C-alpha cells in the first residue's frame, strides 16, 4: 500500500456510512464494560445520528447544491473558446477480465458533455485524463474506454490526447500539464461532475492552466419537498458521502499541499 492508497483508505473510513457504523460498533463494545457505559451510549447514539442525518435528502441536497451552484449548466454552443477540452475520469468503470467494454455509471454524462463541446467548435483537442492501477481483475484503465466512447460520439481519434497515468485529481492536473506543455496549450475547458469542479479547478489552476469549468452529473439541482426531505434513502447517503469526500479532498490537496 502506497501513500495514495493510504489516503484513500482514510478518506473511505471518514465517509458517513463507515464512520457511523464504526461509532455504533465501538459504542456497543463499550456498553459491555460498566465503566465505559456513558461513553458507549454517546458513541452509539452519535453513530446512529450520523447515519440518519447523512441519509436525509433534506441534508444531502443543500450540501450538494452548495458545491454545484457556482457552476450552473449551460449549452455547449455558449462555450468560450479554449485551446483544449479536458475530460476527467470517473465516468466508466475500469475494464475487467472477460469484459469487452467499460461499464457506464451516473457520471458518464460528462463524456457526452465533452463531445458536445468539441462538436460546437469550443476547442480543437480533447484530453482524456484518467488512469488507475492495472492489476487483476482490472485489465485496462478507464482512459481507453473513454476514448472509445468519444470516438463513438463522433470525435475523431486525431483530436484525442490520452493521459493514462493519473490516479487522482491532483494527478489529472499534473499529468495533463505534462501532456499539453509541448503543444503550448494552457486555456482549457475542464469537464467533470459539477460537485467536483471546486477542487478540480483549484488543482488545474495551480498547474498553470487558465481553467474554464464545465459541469456535468448535476445532483443538487432538484430540491426535495415536504416529507420526501425527511425520509432516509441510500441515494442521499451517497450524495452526502460525495460532499464529505470533496471537502476533505479540497482541504488535503488544495489547502494543505498548496
Structural class of the secondary structure composition? alpha/beta
State the end-to-end CA separation: 24 Å
CATH superfamily of the largest domain: HUPs
Mean pLDDT: 92
* Largest sheet, spatial ordering of strands: 5-3-1-6-7
Strand percentage: 5-15%
Radius of gyration in whole Å, from Cα?
A: 20 Å
CATH architecture of the largest domain: 3-Layer(aba) Sandwich
* SSE topology string: HHHHEEHEEHEHEHEH
Give the total of domains.
2
CATH topology of the largest domain: Rossmann fold
Overall geometry: globular
Give the helix level as a range of percent. Answer: 40-55%
Uncertain residue ranges:
none
Task: Give your account of this protein's structure.
The protein has two domains: 3-68 and 221-256, no CATH class; 76-216, Rossmann fold. α4 (57-68) runs parallel beside α9 and α8 runs parallel beside α9. 48% of the residues lie in helices and 12% in strands. The model has no long low-confidence stretch (mean pLDDT 92). It is an alpha/beta fold. α8 (197-206) links the parallel β6 (187-193) and β7. It has nine helices and seven strands; from the N terminus they run ααααββαββαβαβαβα.
